[in-house]
Design a protein that fits this description.
The structure holds 2 protein chains of 2 kinds. Helix content of chain A is about 80%, strand content about 0%. By secondary structure, chain A is mainly α. In chain A, helix 3 packs across helix 13, helix 6 runs parallel beside helix 13 and helix 7 runs antiparallel to helix 13. Chain B has one domain: Ubiquitin Conjugating Enzyme (Roll), CATH 3.10.110. Helices cover about 40% and strands about 10% of the residues of chain B. Chain B is globular and about 50 Å long. The chains are: A mainly alpha, B alpha+beta. Chain A: GO terms for molecular function: ubiquitin-protein transferase activity; zinc ion binding. Chain A: It comes from Arabidopsis thaliana (Mouse-ear cress). Chain A: Pfam families: zf-RING_4 (PF14570).
Chain lengths: ~350, ~180
């Protein structure tokens, strides 16, 4: 790290005129040298996004790291810090755009890419070195991967348009904000530790989104498990006497689903109403009917079996909606990450 | 069949549209139920109880004979009872009286039966046949509370053997089939 900083200082001292674009390129090239593998580089870029989104405390921590360095290099460092701030603002805006336009995330991503290219081209120079050429080859490989990601994103957006619902979209935004906050916390932990352990943290952080998704998946499974219980309840209803023991009339579908007393004594709605007008006691166990069951009676009078089917179907719809929400949320996160990587790659390339 | 169809239509309208249940509807329901009860065939019922209608058109008036159970003072006795069924049956209990004189702690001298299931503990799920079988059961096992003003009840509490002796005498005297 010290040798890299010395080389950077010598490069800046040689030319008389200072260009911000050159400094941006040299900083990025130095950072990119540290990680040779594509996967690690992509992880690093995603973490840089988290750093930019972080709170003021993160900036203070960066300043503390700067203060630890020797005094001779104080002058060039604040300028570099300003450059980093500019980079952060650009990336922050791009991420906000992706959040605000969830159904049209690809379009916003495509619009954001030329903006970055125009800004970088205005400041960049013509100098190139052997290392830069190698990096360009790596960038080309990354671009191919990104195009594949775009194809996946297009398919995901098509699915989103088919399944989209207003309340679900609101919930998606909330989930994404929560995930961003969690990412910020991880960045704070990373800054606290030494630089040598950065690689280990990168490998650890790669698994954390999966861990976060698991607790969201489990409640859905639990809800799905509760659905067979409804089936059992429905099957138990079929064992019903065919006639009312009070008036000896046949029980129709409405009466068959009517269970006013926990003792299990069944009767038709007509007889139940007559008994309630009288003393209000169950003929089977001679105990007074409860008020809750009377409400149940009122609700059942409307549709009877159809109400029960509607209830079970609403339960099924709820389970399906939970699964769809989880699935679209997962797809949305993937799309956002891929778009952000595309933007970073274009910046590094130009 | 016409009567049945009218009953269904009337029941539908009263239960769905109007807030009250008319006495006519309840009476029709009681009549329908009583006809089905009267036609009920049960082996245990045949042994102990035999019922008929004094006038075939009136289903609210029954008469029945209750045989005394084996192993009790009323053995080999045939007791005639009269059953008066109210229009609000099964939401009100029937009135059953003994036409045959009987010496029993729960039955008064004029034949009134004082049993809780015919009073405070009546249930709509009970039927006339079930009540008659219950009366047959209490002949061999009197139930609490007893009639304090009744001579049979006092004798039943004081001297059980004397009670049984008097009961057997009354059975032979009045309840001979």
């Amino acid at each position: 790290m010290i040798s890299d900083s010395i080389t950077n200082a010598s490069a800046t001292s040689a030319p008389t005129a200072r260009d911000f674009g050159k400094k941006k390129r040299t900083n990025r090239s130095a950072k990119l040298k540290q990680s040779k593998l594509g996967l690690r580089r992509e992880q690093w870029l995603s973490q840089v996004a988290m750093i930019n989104k972080g709170d003021k405390e993160e900036m203070e921590s960066n300043r503390r790291i700067g203060s630890e360095k020797p005094d001779q290099r104080d002058l060039p460092r604040p300028v570099e810090n300003l450059d980093e701030d500019n980079n952060g603002t650009h990336r922050h805006e791009s991420f906000i755009e992706s959040l605000s336009n969830s159904p049209n995330s690809i379009l916003s991503g495509m619009n954001s890419i030329p903006n970055f290219s125009s800004s970088s081209s205005s400041g960049s120079g013509g100098s190139c070195s052997g290392n830069i050429t190698e990096e360009e080859d790596a960038d080309d490989d990354g671009c191919l991967d990104d195009w594949e990601a775009i194809a996946d994103a297009l398919a995901a957006d098509d699915e989103k348009h088919e399944k989209e619902n207003p309340p679900e979209s609101c919930q998606e935004h909330e989930d994404i904000k929560q995930s961003a906050l969690i990412g910020g916390a991880d960045v704070v932990l990373r800054d606290a530790k030494a630089d040598s352990q950065r690689r280990k943290q990168k490998s650890n952080q790669a698994w954390r989104p999966d861990d976060k998704l698991r607790p969201q998946g489990l409640p859905n499974l639990e809800k799905q498990r509760s659905f067979p219980v409804m089936n059992l309840h429905f099957s138990s209803v079929t064992v019903v006497p065919s006639s009312c023991p009070i008036c000896y009339e046949d029980l129709d579908l409405t009466d068959s689903n009517f269970l006013p007393c926990p003792c299990g004594f069944r009767l038709c709605l007509f007889c139940h109403k007559t008994i309630c007008d009288g003393d209000g006691r169950c003929p089977g166990c001679r105990k007074p009917y409860e008020r809750n069951t009377i409400k149940f009676e009122a609700s059942v009078q409307g549709g009877g079996l159809t109400i029960r089917l509607a209830r079970s179907s609403s339960m099924f719809c709820r389970v399906v909606c939970e699964y769809i929400r989880w699935y679209t949320n997962f797809k949305y996160i993937k799309v956002a990450i891929s778009l952000f990587l595309i933007a970073c790659e274009n910046l590094a390339y130009l | 069949m016409m009567c049945f169809q009218n009953f269904k239509v009337r029941k539908f309208f009263t239960s769905r549209n109007s807030g009250k249940v008319s006495p006519d509807t309840v009476s029709k329901s009681a009549e329908n139920r009583l006809w089905k009860e009267f036609q009920e065939k049960d082996d245990v019922l045949k042994i102990h109880v035999r019922s008929w209608l004094p006038s075939p058109e009136n289903i609210f008036r029954w008469e029945a004979t209750v045989n005394g159970p084996v192993g009790c003072p009323y053995e080999k006795g045939v007791f005639t009872v009269s059953v008066h069924i109210p229009p609000k049956y099964p939401y009100e209990p029937p009135k059953i009286t003994f036409k045959t004189k009987i010496f029993h702690p729960n039955i008064s001298e004029i034949g009134e039966i004082f049993v809780d299931i015919l009073g405070s503990r009546w249930s709509s799920a009970l039927t006339i046949n079930l009540v008659l079988l219950s009366i047959c059961s209490i002949l061999s096992n009197p139930v609490e509370p007893l009639l304090v003003s009744n001579h049979a009840a006092r004798l039943y509490q004081k001297d059980r053997k004397a009670y049984e002796k008097v009961a057997r005498e009354w059975t032979l005297k009045y309840a001979k089939g």
